[in-house]
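Session log. Operator J.P. requested a structure for one protein chain; no other inputs attached. Running the standard single-chain path with token output.
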Amino acid sequence: MPLPMPFTIRHSSIDGKGVFATRPIATGTMIAPYKGRRVLGDRTARAEQIAGAHTMSFDLPDGTTLDGRLAFNPVRFLNHRCEPNCSAYYAHGHLRIYAIADIASGEELTLDYQLSRPQPWRSGLSRRFRCRCGSGQCRGSLLAA
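Structure written below.
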């Protein structure tokens, strides 16, 4: 019998809802598949449209975007952190979330969103993409460096 998911969803001090470990998770552990619907277009445009909300999408190598808002996908609530403990990996047509550090029970699971800068850059978007992760290495933005 498979183990239940090693996380729960609850309020996050980073932003809205977050994903929290319910037991220790070792580096290299696959947390969960990232599910969603493939749509045409990139997440840069989508992120600009819903700036300030969970973008919940990933650009894929085939030119589509995997939009996690369109399917049951609890890991869509992973918040951004400039020093993340998880990362997304795409292989063989599947996107999966893996631990890239040991994660303690109760710790929030996070990704570095590394959003692309929308072009043309619109006034006011820098405020909407402001980072609130609280990391000692915080770069101040959800955008890629």
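Operator note: Residues 46 and 55 are 7 Å apart (CA to CA).
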